[in-house]
Amino acid sequence: MRELLFKVITDKRILIVLIGIAFFWRALVNLDKTEALWECICSGITLFTMGWFFFAYMCSMSLKPTSWPVTNKIYHGLAVSLLVLNIYVAIYYGMKWLGLLSVEVSLPLDSILRDVRYIMFVMFYCAVIGSAKYLKKMHDDYRFLLSRSREREGGMRASLFKVITHERTLIVLIVAAILWRIAINLDNNITFWESMCSALTLITVGWFLFGYTCALSVKVKGRLELISFIQGISIALFAINVYAIFYYGTRWYELIGILMGSVPEIYEPQLLDLVFREVRYVMLVIFYCTAIMLAKYLEKAYENYTVPK
Predict the structure, then answer these.
(1) Domain that holds residue 15
(2) In 3D, which of 29, 52, 33 has the Cα closest to residue 41?
């Protein structure tokens, strides 16, 4: 029964239908140009259910014995990435349900941002669980062949990759992000250039990871499950990248409008709105750091493992 349920959930047609339903639901919500509390609750429960169910599945699989140990590391990396976004979703919808969060950007862009976030997060969850089908096959069927392993090419690239993906480097990046957000909020005002620096950091890292996974999927030859899995991770990264670009695009539009005096509807952010803005940035930084950690294990899978005959 469990295997049948997993097969149904990870079927591409089912996942495409889920994404289509997400589009239809957000279009239905916006028919009256407002989002009622019950509509917000339904949206939140959907993401909660998907996110925490998939997180529990990844955690359980990361503990399952296998002859290809790197898959346990990959499952662990996916579980951590899901945990980060699940916490972000919980904070956002918890604040919305309690009336603690008003709007994030000026109207009517705030409504569009809610739609984009919901659809992109549904796409992210679908991409992750869809790729899990191929990871499970590798976890169960592949074996380690040391004699046929690929050795990483030496040189600057290998050293740089090792430094970037090291856990201490990622911790430093997260601490730096927190200190950066504290520094730019000392005057209770985020200027256009400060917002630009924050955005460019996330966008650069996000699209670099997307490009890296796409390139890695091209380098992998003769291992269809590994190719399909990496492509699924690429789609998941694409979804979060689109959300990040759209959010900062609306922020830049707003800030440029303020500078030019051409934005008719400027909202006055409340204290909790500002707090959530910082939480979002830090959570996205942590998410991308976990994705960098995951990239290390994908590279290891490409180098050292092969399909059994």
Answers:
(1) 2-306
(2) 29
